Amino acid sequence: MAGEPQTDCLFCKIVSGEVPATVVRETDTTVAFRDINPQAPTHILVIPKAHYPDAASLAAAEPGITADVLREAGTVAADEKIDDTGYRVVFNTGSGAGQTVFHAHAHVLGGRGLNWPPG
User: DSSP class of residue 14?
Assistant: First the structure.
């Protein structure tokens, strides 16, 4: 069921503490942790504690939690001191866009120049 923890989901296991992660922030609705394969000097994932497979399904079902994820992305950027130099928040949706864990999550990237267009 949407919103419920999934036994086969890596990020649900991080939320429950079953799988360790380097957590940098946690709220009632979100967890932020360092990516194990960073693509920038700062690369932190912000996830909702509730399981939704992608950003679109999260936004449709839980707009408040979607806002929490985005708010936490900004707080993470400030905590990591990349808010003044610039950072990127990315939601990959679907395998064709590079999503490999099907639990909605935002990548917070910064600490280096981020070219445009991405890809």
Answer: H
Q: Rounded to whole angstroms, how far apart are CA atoms 114 and 110? A: 7
pLDDT grade, residue 1 (50/70/90)? low
For 3, phi then psi, to 5°, come to 90, -20
What is the reported pLDDT for 118? Answer: 81
If 0-12 CB within 10 Å is exposed, 13-18 middle and 19+ buried, where does residue 116 land?
A: exposed
Give the catalytic positions in this structure.
105
CA distances from 23 to 17, 19, 29, 46 (A): 10, 11, 14, 10
* DSSP code for 47: E
Distance CA 99, CA 22 (A): 20
User: What is the distance between the alpha carbons of residues 97 and 74, in angstroms, rounded to a whole number?
Assistant: 23
- What φ, ψ does residue 77 adopt, rounded to 5°? -60, -40
Three-state DSSP at 16 gives helix
Supply φ then ψ for residue 14, to 5 degrees: -70, -45
